[in-house]
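Researcher: I'd like a structural prediction for the single chain below. Treat it as a standalone chain; there are no partners to consider.
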Amino acid sequence: VRESAGYAAYRAGHYEIALKELRASNRISGDVSMWPVMADCERGLGNPLKALNLAGSAEVKRLAKPEEIEMRIVASGARCDLGEFDAAVITLTCKELKSESEEWAVRLRYAYADALDKAGRAEESKKWFRECAKIDREEITDASERS
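Model: Treating it as a single chain, here is the predicted structure.
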């Protein structure tokens, strides 16, 4: 119940409540799958360093691949929040960028392209927005418009 309440609060933009509920759920269950959402809540509360602390914790090694990718995306966003745009790009630089069929591939490529753009690497950014648009069949992003 605490986990469900946490996710509902997160979706509604009530990050403080979400964080409280997800922390409680984590203490009860030991499940770390919610850590990327907890880190994103910290970002939403204006605490990018706390988000990075979560992203750098030992528990992250226990995440399944989709949550690991989501944590990379959140950590990259936290780096952008701090104005560390090159570090945001490095955070997302991984072999998984080659993936095309995984459920998280579109989000990863989009975040990478956006980080490149914020880092002032316009040509590389456009290339990766095109790479994202190629696999974004449901058009969940605006990658085709940004390429």
